[in-house]
Amino acid sequence: MVVYCWKYKIPGAMKKLKSIIFITANDHRSVLPRLIVGLVFLSEGIQKFLFPETNGTGRFEAIGFANPDFLSSFVATFEIACGILMLIGLSVRLAAIPLLTIMFTAIITTKVPILMEKGFWSMAHAARTDFAMLLLNVFILFYGAGKLSVDYLIQQRFNST
């Protein structure tokens, strides 16, 4: 089966893939989580470039990552790009995957050592933002972008063909 979308032929497998990526609910529940995740990651990515000694390369070097210059720029670029995608609601499920990877890495490399050295309550205090971002990203991964998004417009376009 071949479907036409915006004047292009889309084979059945491609249509199924696009429906998985862009499918979203017909409500506004995910607007606030998307805005929170998008603004936080956009801000953090920009800060890695603006303040490399404390938020970028210097922080990655202090954690002990190999090649902190490259890794800091790499992570910052993903944070900015995925933050923008979250804000406009485009491919939010795909954007959530690198952000989840960043959050898991941040928790493992910075919060687990606090847990081992200072105990649970110190780690819980230090990880509160990381944990909130992790849960909001999981919500977005499963729920999608919602009605006020580019994903919703794309879904409507698919449904009309």
Brief descriptors of the model:
mainly alpha; 161 residues; disordered N terminus; single chain; two-stranded antiparallel sheet
Order of helices and strands: EEHHHHHHHH
Largest sheet, in brief, is: 2 strands, antiparallel
Helix content: over 70%
Whole-angstrom Rg:
18 Å
Strand fraction band? under 5%
What does this structure look like?
There is one protein chain. This protein is mainly alpha-helical and 161 residues long. The chain contains 8 helices and 2 strands, in the order E-E-H-H-H-H-H-H-H-H. The chain has one domain. The radius of gyration is 18 Å and the shape is elongated. The two termini are 13 Å apart.
Which secondary structure elements does this structure contain, and how are they paired or packed?
Elements: E1 2-5, E2 8-11, H1 12-22, H2 31-50, H3 57-63, H4 68-88, H5 92-118, H6 120-126, H7 128-143, H8 150-160
Antiparallel strand pairs: 1-2
Helix pairs in contact: 2-4, 2-7, 3-4, 4-5, 5-6, 5-7
Brief overview, please?
The protein has 161 residues and is mainly alpha-helical. Helices cover 75% and strands 5% of the residues. The protein has one domain.
